[in-house]
Amino acid sequence: MAEPQVLLDLEGVFEAEGAYAATLPDVMALLAQWAPAVQALTLTGHLLAQAGTQG
Rounded to whole angstroms, how far apart are CA atoms 44 and 42? Predict the structure, then answer.
């Protein structure tokens, strides 16, 4: 296994973490895996914020 060469800095509201990847293709694979969850969380946040302003 190759040495990690890429650090992804993941920051949330309450905590931050790092994820390491050995190569750029590994980074792209991680992003492809996380994209659906991040997109769903973002959409949920927008919908909740919109519902809060209407009610």
Answer: 5
Domain boundaries of the chain, sorted by first residue: 6-54
What is the residue-level pLDDT of the chain in tens, covering all 55 positions? 678 888 888 887 788 888 889 998 999 998 899 899 889 988 998 899 888 876 5
Distance CA 12, CA 42 (A): 12
Q: Give the C-alpha separation, 2 to 55, whole Å.
A: 53
**Report field, pTM of the whole predicted structure over 0.70:** no
Count Cα atoms within 13 angstroms, Cβ side, for 22: 3
